[in-house]
Structure formats: C-alpha cells, structure tokens
Design goal:
Blueprint: H1 2-29, H2 37-56, H3 65-85, H4 87-113, H5 117-138, E1 140-142, E2 145-151, E3 155-157, H6 159-175, H7 180-201, H8 204-222, H9 225-244, H10 249-259, H11 270-282, H12 305-313, H13 315-338, H14 342-366, H15 384-421, H16 438-445
Antiparallel strand pairs: 1-2, 2-3
Helix pairs in contact: 1-2, 1-3, 2-3, 2-4, 3-4, 3-13, 3-15, 4-15, 5-6, 5-7, 6-7, 6-8, 6-14, 6-15, 7-8, 8-9, 8-14, 11-12, 12-13, 13-14, 13-15, 14-15
Amino acid sequence: MKSTKNESPIRLLVSAIVLFEAITLLLIAIKPPFLNTEALMLAVALPLLCWISTILLPKFVPMDQLLMALTNFLCGVGIIILYSIVPERGLRQALLFALGLGAMMAGVLFVRWIRNWKTLCWLMIPASIGLLLLPIAVGVWNNDVKNIIAMRWFGNFQPSEIVKLMAMLVLAHFFSQRRGIRRKLPALLFVAACLGVLLLQRDLGTALMYYLTALAMYFVSTGNGLISLLGLVGAAVSAVVAYHIPGFAYVRVRVAIWRNPWDTALGSGYQIIQALMAIGSGGLWGLGLGLGLPRIIPAYHTDFIFAVICEQFGLVFGVCVVLVYVALLARGFSIALRARRSFYALLAFGCTTLLGIQTFVIIGGVIKMIPLTGITMPFVSYGGTSLVSCLTLIGFLHGVSARIEADTEQDIAIVEASEDTYDYDYDYDDDDDEYDDEDDWEVAEA
C-alpha cells in the first residue's frame, strides 16, 4: 500500500512529461511541407525512454524516481529545442542521451557497490591531471579557451567534464576523513593542481565551478567558516587579478559587454543583445515551437539555449524550467541530508552543488545578471561530454540514494532481529508464578 501511494504521484508526473515530449515532437513531425518520419520515430522513442528509465528501471536497480523524472524532463526539453532548429543536432543529442543513461547506470552501480575508495581515489588524482593536460598538448582553441580536443568521429571532447566526476569522488573521500587538515591536504592540493591547469587552458568558467564546489564541500565537512570566508575573498581577489592580466583580455571584454553590450552591438556584444531580444520577443507564452529566429544567436545551441527556450515557449515556461532545476537541486540536497555516512553525504552534496553552480552561472549570464562565462546548461545544452557527465552525476546521486535505502533496510533487519531475541514466550502458572517452559527462557537469554 505504501509503494502504491508513493508511486502514484510519480506516475502522474512521468505521464505529463511523456505527453509533453510526444505532442511537441508530433507537432514537429506534421509541420508543413512534408511529414517528418524521423520526428515521428523520435516522438515514440524519447517518451518510451523516459518511461523505461523512470518507471521500469527502478524496479530492477535502486533509483530515485523523482530525481529521474526531473532529469528526463530537462533532457527532453533540450532534445526537442535542438531538433526544432537543426534536426541532425537534436537526433545526435537523443543518441547521446541514451548513452548518458548507460553512463548513469554505471555511476549508480559504481557508488552502490564499491566499498574501498582509498586506492581508487589515489589513482584518480594523476589520471585527472593527465586528462586536463591533454587539451594543452593536442587541443584546439574555442572562444579564447583551449579546453577541447577535436576528434574526427566522436566530435569535440572536453576532458574537464570527465575530470569533474573524479573530482567529486576524490573530494568526498578525503574531506570525509576526520583527522584534521592533514588528511584533507591531498584533496586541497588536487584542487589547486586542477585550477592551475584550467588557468593554463584559460577556462575560467570551469575553474570557477571547481573552486566554489570544493570550497562548499570543505565548509560542510569541517564547519570552518573562517577559512571558507578567506577562500571566497581569495576567489574575488583572483578575479580582479585575472581582469588586469594581459593574457586574460577576454575577461575584460566579457565584463564590458555585461555592463553595456550596446557599445559593441555589432561586435562582442552582438550575441548577448540577440539573446535578450529573443527572450523579450517570446513574451509570456512564446512564439511557438520552431518559430522565431534562434540562429541569429551564434551559440544558440550551447551557451544561449535558455534564450531559445524562452523565445519559443515563453517566459512562463522558462521560469518553470528554472523551478525544475530548483526541485532537482532540492532533491539532491535531501539525499545528502539523509545519508548516514559522511562520504556519501559529501558526494551527494558535491554533485548537487556543482550542478547548481553550473546552472546559476549559465542562466545568470544569459539574462545578464552576471558576466557570461561560457559553460553549458546542464542536461539541455548541445554537447555529448557535458550531457554524459551530468547524467553520471545524477547516477552518483542515485547510488547514494540506494546506499541510504540499503542502510535503512539493514537497520530494520537489526531491529527486527533484536526484537526476536527478546520476544519471550511468558507462560505463567497461576499457582506458583513460575515459567512452565524453561526452553523459552534459555532461547531468550541466548
């Protein structure tokens, strides 16, 4: 009965998501001048994948269904928007979504069954630094940042997206140690090394995510507000220094277009102006799926996809998307709070914080709340490495949730065993007030 009550709201939510995905893709399929059979197939495949991963899969693998439903919605929105503009990109994103679900399942099993993290974390440290060094050696420049490797068949590969997965495990392991700063020192040196390599790549957006996430995890693990505050001050000072370093001239450009993009409306400020105009032109309810002029924004499929969502679906839908992110983050933090062991609590907290920082930074940059940093919008933006890594983070959260469930079941079993131990069969004799069955007492004492 309890299971039915818990599953009923989830089934309603999944049904709404499946209906949304099917209807929007069907509208794309029947759009004149011809019937799009590829969109018709996607209108069946994407909702089916959503239903399988949210309703069917948790019957075999311990997963948080609400977290999965929210993730499926965000991924579905990204695929639909991309397909409405460039079908090839939307189809590739759908295939990467399926691949990402496989990576997510690997993350679930990885966290659920691995017990000895010490050796793995020590191996992850040099592996992470090596991966971050690859773009410096063989990478290509992309918007003044050298953080990707162009691969002929796979496309662009961004090692920092994979490294952030290992970083969450490494930080959670070392920060969960209780014996003072010495046990946490390897994690702090690891973060410093990662930040140093990211600065060589000039990837300040990713460096900001790494740094703030590590600082938040350190504060949660130690409760040391003074050092955490000094860390924030250090980040502010570093940002000011980077603003004045000639090698990071693009930082000054981004700050300038944040302050007043109209000074360079046909140059560096063009993209943010077009994004703001797209958001405004969509109004409250949007221009309609596939309508508007999203392609006039050069990075419409990556950095500025939130502007395209608001243009086609409207500000109301855009706010709903933000609320879905908030609900997803709340679910992630609730998993962290329910964790019994510090490693799993820190892992869930770190994954959720990382996703939250990434979401705030990119959406805040698109609406000109903060300077744009050029990172992807989790689960929505076009990009295979980013989508797969974000889904793997969700897999880590599922794994922690599974560990919580396993610990709870173990506690229940211990309590039931203890109750059975002291469940005496008292059979008093009314005449002499003594036990009639001595065996029951012997079993009870045993």
